[in-house]
């Protein structure tokens, strides 16, 4: 399987143009995007200043995963990210499942980023005194709900944002009984970024590098200037809503980090992927974690955490201290920053489809390389449509948690894949390997310590379990049960097979973070996987290269 992928890589027609600096730039472009400019506010509102620790915890989970990604990238330097790695480690069916999950991750992430970009763009125009029509910058679902609420409960029941979209619905042009409402800026930016990605990797790299320099400069400016306005009293209490409040921000915080795996989708356009990919992933995570922790501490130090439930927290804190010039600079910069995140995700998605198509699991047109631009042209166009059309008509909140579900799933399989590489001996070929720390006794010992700590400090949690009904446990706690069963199984297998502890910790930390996501997201994710399996067994299973080889 590895040789087949290598042959495809050599005949693919993609241009090898990316070095370590370019890869780090792409990683920072993906990570320092909508997360730091929008979702960080909601996470701080729920968890207080202690959210800075959640960034550290999430980064640790990502570092375990990044090391695993890096080992795979050095072993199989082919586009496709976790899909390719699952193909090599677990075979075709698992690879299809993970590829299908990655489609959800990348496409849904970009819908969130495009909608977030639209909000910042409209806000920026208002800062210059330009009023963008509300019916062209919101989604019909939110507008219709707000208008219904206005009709039934009166204007006093609506906050300012709801009043605006309700009026947008009321004043929107109509065709028959249909109100014409859609998010035009989200659609336009998706179209423009897709066009840039279509034209070529060099152009995308140049644009990304420029935007990254600008937005990292803005983040450093916020930290540097904001530090002088920090009031330590705002850091007390540090965790006002306890551990539960901090962990409620998992989806928002994790959404801020997921971009690092997009680096691995550009493996075939990297000059020396086996050397550069591992370095780029680690550098990216370290840089972004430090920036996230500092920015969270500055934000929660400048204003009380209770004021941070806003879409544009960086601009908001400077407005609060009457530094409107800084707020304006941040608003303009955030539009550029979020554009770069959109660019990286639009770059990654077509390359995953291209790799799946090469293996026969998707239609051949998805692997077609443009003769002039040397990009997966058809896959890029379809990506633009898949992201742009929903971004025109749906709301952002629906997508954030759903993105994290697919990502956690992919991360766990990549960490598990490294354990398989070690067990099967394939790791011997890897130019980069996850540092080996024998987990023979440590995994089981960690389980015992966790159980003891739970009985000492977690009586409130245990009390909740004792009073919960079977149906409640099945609906809301099933992932927690799976987490403990998985830890027990890994303890036994680590003792038996001498598993390395770092990939095991990657599996457990990602699985634990998954337990904090809502059950409704899991239901949608399961439905998505079922649809994917139907496509696989009706098309991919029969048409795949593996099936053709077996027939011969």
UniProtKB/TrEMBL annotation:
Q: Where in the cell? A: Membrane
Q: How does it sit in the membrane?
A: Multi-pass membrane protein
| GO molecular function list | amino acid transmembrane transporter activity
Its Gene Ontology cellular component terms are: membrane
Q: Which residues form the Cationic amino acid transporter C-terminal domain?
A: 501-544
Q: Which UniProt keywords apply?
A: Membrane, Transmembrane, Transmembrane helix, Transport
One Pfam family name is AA_permease_2
Give me the segments passing through the membrane: 23-45, 51-70, 82-103, 180-200, 212-230, 242-260, 281-305, 325-348, 373-393, 399-421, 441-458, 470-490, 497-515, 521-539
* Signal peptide limits: none
The protein's superkingdom reads: Bacteria
InterPro entries reported in the protein's UniProt record: AA/rel_permease1, CAT_C
Where it mainly occurs, coarsely classed, is membrane
Recorded protein name is Cationic amino acid transporter C-terminal domain-containing protein
């Amino acid at each position: 399987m590895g040789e087949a992928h290598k042959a495809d890589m050599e005949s693919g027609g993609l241009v090898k143009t990316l070095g370590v600096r370019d890869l780090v730039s792409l990683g920072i472009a993906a990570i320092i995007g909508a997360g730091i400019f929008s979702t960080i506010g909601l996470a701080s509102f729920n968890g207080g200043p202690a959210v800075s620790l959640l960034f550290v915890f999430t980064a640790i989970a990502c570092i375990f995963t990044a090391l695993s990604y890096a080992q795979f990238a050095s072993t199989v330097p082919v586009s496709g990210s976790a899909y390719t790695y699952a193909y090599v480690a677990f075979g075709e069916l698992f690879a299809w499942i993970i590829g299908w999950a990655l489609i959800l991750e990348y496409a849904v992430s970009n819908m969130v980023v495009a909608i977030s970009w639209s909000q910042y763009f409209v806000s920026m125009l208002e800062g210059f005194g330009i009023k963008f029509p509300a019916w062209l910058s919101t989604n019909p679902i939110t507008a219709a709900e707000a208008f219904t609420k206005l009709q039934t409960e009166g204007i006093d029941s609506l906050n300012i944002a709801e009043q605006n979209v309700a009026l947008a619905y009321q004043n929107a042009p109509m065709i028959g009984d249909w109100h014409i409402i859609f998010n035009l800026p989200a659609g336009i930016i998706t179209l423009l970024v897709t066009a840039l990605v279509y034209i070529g990797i060099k152009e995308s790299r140049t644009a990304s590098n420029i935007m990254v320099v600008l937005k990292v400069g803005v983040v450093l400016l916020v930290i540097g200037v904001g530090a002088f306005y920090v009031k330590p009293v705002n850091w007390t209490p540090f965790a006002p809503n306890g551990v539960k409040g901090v962990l409620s921000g998992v989806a928002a915080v994790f959404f801020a980090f997921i971009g690092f795996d997009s680096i691995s989708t550009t493996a075939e356009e990297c000059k020396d992927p086996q050397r550069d990919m591992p370095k780029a992933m680690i550098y990216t995570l370290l840089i972004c974690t430090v920036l996230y922790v500092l920015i969270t501490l500055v934000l929660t130090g400048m204003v009380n955490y209770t004021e941070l439930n806003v879409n544009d927290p960086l601009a908001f804190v400077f407005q609060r201290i009457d530094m409107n010039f800084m707020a304006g600079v941040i608003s303009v910069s955030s539009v550029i920053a979020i554009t770069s995140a959109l660019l990286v995700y639009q770059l990654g998605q077509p390359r995953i489809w291209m790799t799946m198509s090469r293996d026969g699991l998707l239609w051949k047109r998805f692997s077609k390389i443009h003769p002039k631009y040397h990009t997966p042209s058809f896959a890029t166009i379809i990506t633009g449509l898949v992201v742009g059309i929903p971004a025109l008509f749906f709301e952002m909140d629906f997508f954030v948690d759903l993105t994290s579900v697919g990502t956690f799933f992919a991360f766990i399989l990549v960490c598990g894949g490294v354990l398989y590489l070690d067990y099967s001996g394939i790791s011997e070929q890897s130019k980069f390997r996850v540092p080996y720390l024998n987990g023979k006794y440590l995994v089981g010992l960690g389980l015992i310590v966790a159980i003891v700590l739970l009985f000492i400090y977690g009586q409130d949690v245990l009390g909740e379990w004792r009073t919960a009904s079977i149906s409640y446990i099945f609906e809301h706690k099933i992932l927690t049960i799976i987490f403990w069963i998985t830890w027990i199984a890994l303890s036994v297998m680590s003792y038996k097979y001498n598993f390395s502890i770092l990939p095991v910790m990657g599996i457990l930390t990602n699985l634990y973070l998954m337990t904090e996501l809502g059950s409704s997201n899991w239901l949608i994710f399961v439905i998505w996987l079922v649809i994917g399996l139907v496509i696989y067994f009706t098309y991919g299973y029969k048409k795949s290269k593996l099936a053709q080889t077996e027939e011969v």
